[in-house]
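pipeline/complex-builder :: batch 7 item 3
reading input block
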Amino acid sequence: MTDKTVKDTPSGKQDKKFDLRHIFEGSYSTLLPLLAIFTGLVIGAIVIAATDATVIAAWQNFFQAPGAALAATWTSIAVAYGALFGGSLGSPAEIFAGIQTYFSTGDSAAFMKAIYPITESLVTATPYIFAGLAVAVGFRCGLFNIGAEGQFFMGALGSVFVGYSFSSLPAIIHLPLALLGGIAAGALWGAVPGYLKAKFGAHEVVNTIMMNWIGFRLSDWLLNGPMKSPGFRPVTRNIAEAAELPHFFPDPLRLNWGFILALLVAWLIYWLLFKTTIGFEIRTVGANPDAAKYAGVNIVRNFVLAMVISGGLAGLSGASQVLGVDHWVGQGFSAGYGFDAIAIALLGKSHPLGVVLSALLFGVLRGGATRMQSLAGIPVDIISIIQGLVIVFVAAPDIIRWLYRIRPAEKHALQSRG
Amino acid sequence: MMNTKTTLQSDDMRPRIVWGIVLIAVGLLVLFLFAFSTEAGQVTRFGLNEAKADAFVIPDLVLPSQATTYAMALVLIAVGAFQMARGVKSNSALVTVLAFCFVMAFLVWAARDKSFSLVGMLSSSFVRATPIALAALCGVISERAGVTNIGIEGTMLFAAQVSVIVGTTTGSLWLALLSAILTGGLIAALHAFLVIKFKVDQIISGTAVNILGAGTTSFISSRFLEKNIDALNNSGTFPAISIPLLSKIPVLGPVLFDNTPIVYLTMILVVILHIVLFYTPWGLRTRAVGEHPKAADTLGVNVFLTRYVNVIVGGMFAGIGGAYFTIGSVGRFDEIMTAGKGFIGLAAMIFGKWTPIGAYTSSLIFGFADSLQVKLQILQVGIPPEFLLMAPYIVTMIVLTGVVGKAVAPAADGVAYEK
């Protein structure tokens, strides 16, 4: 009711009073995702506290000791999120001390130890950037690529195959070849649903899901058969050293050139989508396929092209993980990257910059979750809960508006999905 | 007149020739793969009795391996040739012949010189088809009203977990089943609320439900269930109920009438949903809302209410599907135990052309493929079971292209309705 009365006042300009909502409206499109993340984290905190035995016990004595209940709740959340962000970002003081030690004694060990958490977060973010871009390119063309998961796995298998098949190639040839192997396998996995959508109108959502399962079964067979390394476990052999994405720092730091490559590819996709005719056509098809058709845009070609690019990016995502971090592939390798990618693309509003930022966020969350599990005993799955909530809030901005009493702004196209 | 006829014929020509070629090709495949590798004198023994059936023991079906595989190949080639020459009207008849001959030849070949319990496999097909069928029915009822629900997987996980906890703490499996139904309905209500009230993209909302389902159940599982298995995660399972007399019928008895309650319930629900959807006012309204909500609205049908009810009832079906995984089969909850059955259910729904009976039949095919691959691992034939497991997905994709039997979704499927 109140919202309506506010809206009904003739114009916002008459309302000269300083109002937070003015600031909110100005940066509306950035504000919404931030509030979505914030709300997701708050609900995550509630879940953490509500499932903590100590907190529950303290609340049972709320009327005797209300302070203790609140303190227990606060401790529970602080310990969990402290471990989460400490585990993913490290401590600035330690990093600073590490730099000082390096300059005074030349010993870099302390510095390396201090930056380990944040580099791990970047390592985790790397495949997310590629995979998020993959889903985003699909969205821009009006296609929902749920198959990033399977394309990721296929890309990993393609690159690991190239990676271990040659033993004496120089790195300058072997590494690009292995990356291409990943791109090609992923692109193939994306091209099939794209072609079927363009040619027969078969729904890409169902077909990409089917391709996921075909991919998982195929990988089961490959890992137990033709690609199996000698031994009992269903894993591939290690790739040749020449195919590895070089690391920046000595072990155990795993930050590698894959991260730089991801940023470059994000820029490339930005350029492709917004500065070239190809990108313009893809976006036109996404915004309104019928209009695009009448304007003479080849719909079939663009659907296939978008899915090939999307699949290729997802494949590259798998390749970056194999060549930069794992160096081999086993069953269950994909572990939800494709589904995280959907959240990342939505949160980033299918814009390459947004995708990079949300991928970094999820890198931080996923990176720190392991430490949170070992330190505070909070299962890593809390991140999936937060992620699911963020998707809901980003997709249903009205909930966020209602929660924070934000006036509805001009209609923004959140994403182009036909 | 003549002209019309020739154009009609040439329109019919292509699929006719394609079908003929496919049939003959499969016939040749059977000939080369199976028939040629059998030897004269080999027999395949199909067991038609379950161990405990004692009333009527019928003799096992013993087939000469070589003659049977050759016969199947010849039937395929003959039907293919007839199809190319004259053409058969019904595509589904062709599919039936194709599937029957191929599977028969394959089984006879795979189990040559061995015995093979046909009844055991058919009965496990029905069991394995159950969660797929419930997911498919959930899809049918929601999509007929124009709401796509790809969150079935997540819904089933929620229901599976709640039912095992309720079952273990109360000790009542029926209460557990009820709680699963309510949970399914609740989660579907969330999906319905998001897509109907807030007009959230239906695929995105479904994806969110899936992520939330996997995340929440895994979270609760590792935080509570793993530590307190006896107190929270050990519900026991429904025992199989043999229906008197009917379960003594040879072959059909053990397959159809000696099952757990959830399997029976699924069969009953298929029939009920079929009647409701096609013979009641509610079904008519549902279909109208799914095909043309504007027209339905004009005629006074409450589009939003219809959609809410259908999606929530669909969620209840998925809830039963979730309960199958825990109280219906193993009696405990494991993380991500649905293993994609919700998505396969969607495939079965499409394959069954959005009808309850079609969806159930397709689920049986998926269930059959599933139990067949288990059997193949035991029989140790050279074919990797993974390829057999891939077949249903590939078939679904082929069906979606519309080349083999058109599958058309309800016209307003997945589109939010703006009043």
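note: Residues 120-361 of chain A form one domain.
queue -> next item
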